[in-house]
From TrEMBL:
Gene3D superfamilies noted in UniProt: Leucine-rich Repeat Variant
One GO term (biological process): protein localization to plasma membrane
Keywords recorded for this protein, A-Z: Cell adhesion, Cell junction, Repeat
Name by which UniProt lists this protein: PKP2 protein
Family listed: Belongs to the beta-catenin family.
Entry GO CC: adherens junction; cytoplasm; intercalated disc; nucleus; plasma membrane
Keyword Repressor annotated: no
Region ranges (Disordered): 79-109
Length: 296
């Protein structure tokens, strides 16, 4: 577990170690099957996998990267889009999100397991069944790492979490735990998931009221609560930016007074949350059909 956090070279060596990832996954599967999701060894295994999934898309060996991207390009060869990965335009991003990954292997080995749906479901199972904060946080953190990029893999993982594995109820539960870092990691995961336009309606329906509920009534007083608050605001921004219905949902959940209060902080100490709230307010005002409701 300590070695897995030793930096990119350490992660690379451990990912390449024959049988290591497979053994970790095997152990966790056994613990879940035996209804023992809270033992220390399971926590260690999940924390190692969490660390090995960090910056995975960037650090993938060339052969894997080419395989994923070239197969994807073959699928989307009729799209007539110039360079799927060289441009940042919204149109291309939407194409990217709409294109599925090639069919995943039924029996993954080694590094392939790290983004496979089997392990994604294991993380969601541990989030739901474990009561160990470190295990919950590492499971959420691994999913956060896997959904952090902009390539086809993060969007495929996001789709698996939300639509194929029905992971939102388990993640939503983590928004209400007392442990601040577990809550922060759950919100960061939702922020990543909410970037995927095809999933925004599902996410808004399932967790938007909960996100509003856990927003503080005033400017947060600690760094970790400040960061969590900023992440909530950016998640709400993603969900409402292009969707008037979701903006109305935020309004009906009484989110506006909280967001206004957070945005009005003049102190420089915890300005990250205030800045995020201001960005969200600016975006909400762009829905001109809601102006009269806002004024009320």
């Amino acid at each position: 577990r300590n070695m897995s956090s030793a930096g990119p070279e350490g992660r690379k060596k451990m990912r390449e170690c024959d049988g290591l990832i497979d053994s970790l996954v095997y152990y966790i599967q056994g613990a879940i099957a035996d209804h023992e999701p809270n033992d220390k060894a399971t926590e260690n295994c999940v924390c190692i996998l969490h660390n090995l999934s960090y910056q995975l898309e960037i650090e993938l060996p060339e052969s894997y990267a080419q395989s994923i991207y070239m197969q994807r390009r073959n699928i989307s060869s009729n799209d007539k889009t110039p360079g799927c990965f060289g441009t940042r335009s919204r149109k291309v991003k939407e194409k990217q999100q709409d294109t599925p990954l090639p069919e995943e292997k039924s029996n993954p080995r080694g590094v392939e397991s790290l983004w496979h749906s089997t392990l994604i479901r294991i993380y969601l199972s541990l989030i739901a069944k474990s009561t160990r904060n470190y295990t919950q946080e590492a499971s959420l953190g691994a999913l956060q790492n896997l959904t952090a990029g902009t390539g086809p893999m993060p969007f495929a993982v996001a789709r698996t979490v939300v639509q194929k594995a029905n992971g939102l109820p388990s993640i939503r539960t983590m928004l209400h735990v007392s442990h601040p870092t577990v809550k922060k990691t759950a919100v960061s995961l939702l922020r990543n998931l909410s970037r995927n336009t095809s999933l925004q309606s599902d996410i808004a329906r399932e967790v938007l009221p909960d996100l509003v509920l856990i927003l503080p009534e005033s400017v947060p007083g600690s760094d970790i609560v400040c960061e969590t608050t900023a992440s909530i605001c950016y998640t709400l921004y993603n969900l409402t930016q292009s969707n008037s219905h979701n903006a109305r949902l935020l309004l009906s959940a009484d989110g506006l007074p909280k967001i206004i209060t957070i945005s009005m902080n003049d102190s420089n100490v915890f300005s990250k949350a205030s800045r995020a709230a201001s960005v969200l307010l600016y975006s909400l005002w762009s829905h001109t059909d809601l102006h009269s409701a806002y004024k009320k």
